[in-house]
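Lecture notes, unit on protein representations.

Consider one protein chain, 335 amino acids long.
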Amino acid sequence: MDLGLDEQQEMLKNVARDFLEKECPESLVRQMEEDEKGYSPDLWQKMAGQGWMGLTIPDQYGGAGLTICELVVLLEEFGRALVPGPFISTVVLGATPIMEAGTDEQKQTYLPKIASGESIMTMALTEPSAKWSADGITLEAKKSGADYVLNGTKLFVPDAHVTDHMVVVTRTGGKGETGITLFIVDSKSDGIKFEQLKTIAADKQCEVTFENVKVPAANILGKEGKGWPIVEKTEKAATIAACAYLVGLSQMDFDVTLNYAKERVQFGRPIGSFQAIQHKLADAVIDVDGSRFITYKAAWSMAEGESDADLMISMAKAWASDASRRVVAHGQQIH
C-alpha cells in the first residue's frame, strides 16, 4: 500500500482546498449552525458542479466512478473547512446502499439525481433503543396488497428534514439479522413527521416518526429480509467518511494552533519556545498523522477487499474519534 497521493488525488485535494477556502468561509459555517436547513443550497449546487456528489457513483449513472480512497481525500478537505450540510448523508448513506443492492431501474432513477445535486438522501437506521445491532430494528413494515405499511420511530437520523428520499431500515419479520428489509421512501410521504433534535454540535439530527406510511414493494432495496449486510457495508463506508472529516478538522486545528504558538509572545518570547507547549504540539502531530494513516489504510483495505478491512475500519474509528478530541483540547489550552 502506497499512502502517497497519485496525480489525480493530488489535483482533487488542491482543487477542493482552493474552492472551499473561497466558497465556504468560517462565516458561512457559523451561519449554517443557526440555519434551520443547516446547509447552503447555493454552495450545494456549486459542489455538485465540481462533480463531488457523484465522485464514487459509476460513470453510467452520471458519476466519476472513483473509489472511497478519493472520497477520503475530498472529505479531509471538507473537515478542514468544516463544510456543513448533508454531503455524507447523501453520498454515503444514501448512494452506497443503492449502488450495492439497487435494481437497474432504481439505480437509473436515483443515482443520476444524487450525482447532479438534485436529490438529497440519508439512511434512517437507529431507533429509541439506541442499539446499532440488527436486533435494535423494530420499525415494522407490513405487507398490504402491492404496498408495505411502515410504523415506528427512527432517532438521530442525519439531515432527514431536508431529504428528498430516505433509505429506511425496517423489520418485515424474523429476529436479529433475519427479516431486515430496506426501503427507499419518499420523505414527503403521508404519515412521516420530522422533529429536529437539539445537539451540542448544532448538527442537524432528527427524530422521524412513521405512521401508516405506504411504500410500494418496488422500493425494496435488495431482497426482502436480507437487508442487514447492505446496512453493514454502508456503515463501514460512513465510518471511514466520518474519520476522514475528523482528519481534516484535526489538521486544521493543529495548523492554526502552531501558527498561534509561533506568534503569541509571553515573557519576552514566543510561547512555542516553551517545552510544555512543544509537548502538546508534538502530541497533536502524532494524533493527526496517526489518524490520517489509519483512515487511509482503512479506505484502501475496503477498496481492495482486503481481509483486514473490518479491523482497520474499527481501528480508524477508535483512534480518529479520540485523537481529534485530544488535538482540539490541546489547541484550546494553547490558545
